[in-house]
Structure formats: C-alpha cells, structure tokens
User: Fold Beta-ketoacyl-ACP synthase 3 from Streptomyces monticola.
Amino acid sequence: MLNPAEDSPLPARLVSVGAYRPRTCLDNDELARAHALDTSDAWIRQRTGIATRHIASPGESLEFMGARAAERALARAGFTDQGAQAADCILAASMSHLDSSQSLARGISKELGGRHATFDVSAACAGFCVGLELARCLIATRTFRRILVVGAERMSDIVDPHDRTTSVIFADGAGAGLVCAAPEPEIGPAAWGTEGAAGRLLHRSPLAPIAAAPEGPPAYLTMRGPELYRWVMGTVPRAAREALDKAGVHTDDLSAVVLHQANDRMTTALVAALGLPPHVVVSHDVVSSGNTSAASVPLAVDALLADHPDLSGKLALLTGFGAGLTFAAQVVRLP
Assistant:
C-alpha cells in the first residue's frame, strides 16, 4: 500500500534571485553596423524603447550562463558553503535550447557540479513564471525542499541577424530564482494558459538553425508584431487580474510590477491597461537588456531589487507571455 499524502500543503517563497548578463553589450548603432541593418538608434528606440542589449559569446553557453545565475541566487540565500547541493531540483526554461537529446536543466546541474532532479519547461517567454508555479506546487507536496528555477536564453542563436524586426529586440542572458518552503504563502497561485491556435504569431521552425542545415528553409524566429500586440493586450491584463484574485490582493497592495520585457512600448500600454496606482514601481529592464524571453522576468527582478532595495519583502505582480502563445502571472513577495 502506498504511503498517504501529507494532509497540509507547504507554502512556498522566492528566497533569492541571481542574474548573468553576457560580457558583450551592444548599443543600437553598434548592432546596426555589425549586421548592416537598415535602421537607426532613433528608429529602434521609438518602436521598442530598447537602447542596449547583451549578446553571448561562444563560451557563454546556456548551461554556463544558467549555472552562474543559479550560483548567485544560492549565494544570496546564504548557501555558499553547501554550493550546488543546497538545491535538490533544477527546473530550466528556455526557447533557444537546441539540443533535444538532453535537458538544459541537466546541463546546468553538470555545470554546477551537483546532483539534482532536473527537468525543462517549454513555455517560451512565460517560462520563468510557469516554472515558479511548478516549483510552488512541488514544494506544496513536499516533493523537493529547495528548487532552482532558471531562465536562460541565447536568442541571438535563433534570430536572423539581418531581420530588423527581430534582431533589434531579442538578446541573451540568464536569471535564476531559489524557491523554498515558507511559514506563510509568499508565491500566489498562477493564472496561466496557452492559446495554441494563435501560435504562429511568434514561431520558430523545428529545424536546426540555418547554419547547421543550409539545404533547408531558415529556422529563425518569426514574429507577426501587430497581431501579437493585440493578443497580448487582450490576454495579459485578464491574466494579471485573475492572478491578483487568486492571491487575494488588489493593485493597491502591490509595490512593484515585473512584466515580461517584450518591448517598452508594450510595457507602458499594459501598465495603463492594468490601472496601477502611482506608487507601484514598474520594471523597464528591457531598455538596457532587450527581450531575453524566459530569462527576462528574473533578470528584471534582479535589476529592480538592485535599483530599489527597499522593495525587498514587498508584493510584486510577475507576468510572462509569448510564443505558444502562452501566458502566466502570479503575485510574489520579493526576496
């Protein structure tokens, strides 16, 4: 006979975050020159709000970047002595992991030098928020004690460098969060879902990148911007309000909002649609980091806390949305 489940679920909290930003940072003019793009700094800023972005070098793999972000999250949580073994599970989210034979989480575990349960989440730009929800549920059932949720992207690998509609937006980096049990709930239930019928609005062919398959069609990411924008504006505010309801809070209770850093114009429009009070601090990390898909939310949280350390311990609304089309939102108490 199987052992019975525990009667009471354990609450979870986001204990710490860590980030890794690639060493190479390009401003708009540098990017345009590097790829002979017919664009300008003024054009890019007007349409996206982006000024700079980080681009990974060959030595900055997804595994490397994800492990460095995870190490920083562990160190900030005070687990320096225990190292990688402080966590017993690694959950990785990415849409630019191209090796289908093994999970990115396994590679991060190997890079850290530890031994963990590992698995990946395929939810594109909503990946980190989906990962937080899964970690919350795994903590609740006492399956694991401490879970590293990692978002890592090399979007420069899957974006056509000569396409100014995508190459000026997407960038590289990694962010991680350590989720542990808590006395009281500090990660609210997620509002999440997928609208598969609209998936072609942001899509990449399942083929390898064109450099690895020169005889086949390009496998770069394609985006139908205006239609995607309308989907976001119709979907994300509803998901955000549902997440607030599930957490039992109102917008007045929030101190910060971290939206997926798609582009700054979209962030501004979503903030207006949510009707946030003036005291709520909104992340605009996309201006300096670009759109890093699954890494964007943890990178933005890391930057927000660096600029506003007083937000530690306060409530924030997190949202992710993108390819799939998948969305997720939840309320968390910031570490």
Notes: The CA atoms of residues 200 and 324 lie 8 Å apart.
